[in-house]
Write a structure and sequence with these properties.
267 residues; globular; binds 2-oxoglutaric acid
Length: 267
């Protein structure tokens, strides 16, 4: 079923105030401090470290690996906590501000910037996408699972760049770039047309984050959930979870089955 404007997927939260919505529309980001409790952060990190241990060198391989960072891909398939996280009402409300009511999950990945990784992730826009005639098509949520500090590889963004109509050239150093620092448990929703990337980690410790990435209904998923998520997991999802994974959406099957979903510099 293709959701219509009157059939919003994010019906639970209506908490974003007018100023937060304005910032999200104009600057391209909004923060949710303390969305996860310390106990929830610990549960995510415990599961993520289990996955890194089990997956070893192949970690992230369903999508891509990255120099200077450990990655996990396809996490909806890898633990109930991830299945539940994709339905977080506060985040869905912000996603809808950016994408409108017709959106779905594109992927759920984890990225851990290695200690002293010696490089920043290039500035990019997700899926290499520019806004089109229908508006924005990509929106990401970055869940801090360690504190993001000025030195440990925090997310960097260029506020407002989603309205520039171009993607960053390699090595771009635009004015106005800012670091998004915060505490473990904070979540930042970014319009993923905003120029962004991880910064360099100068510390002795990893910097972990989960990226729950959504896309407009008429675009392919970065990771085709119907194919990648086990039947057992698909069968226990809530109706909203099924819709978010686009499990019963022939349009998504046609768009995503060819594996055409790409992401930013990681094409
Ligand atoms: O983890 C981060 O700080 C940002 C990562 C990112 O933008 C990406 O992997 O596409």
């Amino acid at each position: 079923m293709v959701p219509s404007a009157s059939d919003s997927i994010s019906t639970l939260a209506r908490g974003l105030n007018a100023e937060a919505k304005r910032q999200l529309r104009e600057q391209g980001y909004v923060a949710f401090p303390g969305l996860l409790s310390p106990a929830q952060v610990a549960r995510f990190n415990e599961r993520i470290e289990e996955l890194f241990a089990v997956e070893g060198d192949s970690a992230g391989g369903e999508f891509k690996t990255e120099p200077g960072a450990r990655r996990i891909a396809n996490a909806v398939n890898k633990g109930r906590i991830f299945e539940e996280a994709i339905e977080t009402p506060e985040v869905l409300e912000a996603i809808e501000v950016v994408l409108g009511p017709d959106f779905k999950l594109s992927s759920l990945n984890v990225r851990s910037a290695n200690p002293h990784n010696g490089c920043a992730q290039p500035l990019h826009v997700d899926s290499g996408a520019l806004p089109d005639a229908l508006g924005n098509s990509v929106c990401n949520s970055v869940w801090m699972l360690d504190d993001f500090t000025e030195r440990n590889g925090a997310l960097r963004i260029v506020p407002g760049s989603h309205r520039w109509g171009r993607i960053p050239e390699p090595g771009a150093k635009p004015e106005g770039e800012m670091l998004v620092t915060g505490k473990a448990g904070d979540v930042v929703v970014i319009n993923a047309h905003v120029w962004h990337g991880g910064s360099e980690n100068f510390t002795d410790r990893q910097r972990r984050a989960m990226h729950i990435y959504y896309t407009r209904g008429d675009k392919p998923q970065q990771q085709y959930q119907k194919r990648l998520v086990r039947r057992e997991v698909q069968d226990r999802l809530s109706p909203r979870g099924r819709r978010l994974l686009a499990l019963d959406d022939p349009r998504n099957d046609a768009l995503s089955a060819t594996g055409s979903g790409v992401s930013g510099f990681m094409k």
